[in-house]
Amino acid sequence: MTLQEAEPIIEALIFAAEHPLTPKEIGEIVELDEVAVISVVDNIRKRYEAGSLMIRNVGGGYQIVTKPEFAPWLEKLGRPTINTPLSMAATETVAIIAYEQPVTKAEIEQIRGVRSDSAINSLLERGLICELGRKQGPGRPILYGVTEAFFSHFGLQSLDELPIKSISDWK
Hints:
By secondary structure, the protein is α+β, with helices and mostly antiparallel strands. The protein is 47% helix and 15% strand. The longest helix is centred in the N-terminal third of the chain and has 15 residues, at 34-48.
């Protein structure tokens, strides 16, 4: 398959995918190497420059989204907002998890200084965090980490894009 033949297929894959597709995932589907996939995606991006859509890098993958300047009109569609604002407790909790993962509920509560059951449950329901396994030791507490939905929700490609490098920088 030529890159020209692959372009509309790759565009359709990115558009239809339920999650951001990585170059590797796309390459496996269309039988091209990752470098070729990245080149094709760059061509699609160039075509989108003058329009209302763009391809965004999220969590190491690609996603087709509308440009932010169209938000006022899109909001008039009356669709329910998918990304409703997080509570302050949930925001604090997801930040701690992002910086400290894998982290237990007890460790989160030690950092926050308050119980975090409700915030953790809310973040799990939204799919922003997940259980990564269990910590060795007494009680084998659950370890939490962030998900691809976290990166999508906050418009990040990786944890390296977080504004500070560790929780100790907050103090």
